[in-house]
Design goal:
The chain has 10 helices and 8 strands. The chain is of the alpha/beta class. Strands 2-1-3-6-7-8 form a 6-stranded parallel β-sheet, sandwiched between helices. It has a two-stranded antiparallel ribbon with strand order 4-5. It is globular, with a radius of gyration of 17 Å.
Length: about 210
């Protein structure tokens, strides 16, 4: 994929402008349009065939959970990622249950946003580690099946985003030694021999 086409659906036009600003230095991602309501979002998705759709939790004429099916019909190949300011909003669980491909919070850094869009476009499920895990029952189930703790998953997700151990430690407020320990635990639980194999196995297990 030489270019990732991105659509932003949010009832505040400034959000679309903000995303464009955050992503302007990445030549592989192009914001092909923004929509402020459900009807225009579906038309835009059909017209632009985006690879990724950033979808606000609530629109003037619909909630995100109601948007998943029509957006998938309009753009079958698009990955739908909830883009919200609320990590524990009551509507978030319903939206995740509707089958979106991930969730990222609006205060994400440019680096995190770029990483999320890239991963979503490549078929990886992405969930901001700060999202209340009560809102993500599917992810809870997968963690339970693998035996990973929430903290091990947080470290794994950052590793999958390409961060080094020192960067992960700074991001999560841990020591480098602790990060190394979490990664070793994750490797053991997923039967991986190294970091690359760990990320590959995690992706295949639906953890990323």
């Amino acid at each position: 994929m030489t270019e990732i086409r991105l659509v932003v659906v949010d009832d505040h036009p400034v959000v679309v402008d903000g995303v464009r600003l955050l992503l302007r230095d990445d030549p592989a991602i192009r914001v092909v349009g923004g929509a402020t309501d459900a009807a225009s979002a579906v038309r835009l998705a059909a017209r632009t065939s985006p690879h990724v759709i950033l979808l606000d939790l609530r629109l003037p004429d619909a909630v995100a959970s109601e948007m998943v099916a029509p957006l998938r019909q309009a753009a079958p190949g698009a990955r739908i990622v909830v883009f919200t300011a609320y990590r524990d909003h009551a509507a978030l669980r319903t939206t995740l249950d509707a089958g979106v491909d991930g969730c990222i919070l609006k205060d994400a850094s440019a680096t995190d946003l770029v990483s999320a869009v890239r991963q979503a476009a490549s078929g990886i499920q992405i969930f901001d580690p700060r999202v209340d895990d009560r809102a993500a029952p599917r992810m809870r189930s997968r963690l339970h099946e693998t035996g990973l703790t929430q903290r091990e998953y947080d470290v794994l997700r950052h590793a999958a985003a390409g961060r080094t151990n020192p960067e992960i430690a700074e991001q999560l407020g841990l020591t480098r030694h602790t990060v190394t320990g979490y990664l070793r635990n994750a490797m053991r639980k997923l039967n991986a021999r190294n970091r690359i194999e760990l990320i590959t196995r995690a992706a295949k297990s639906g953890l990323l």
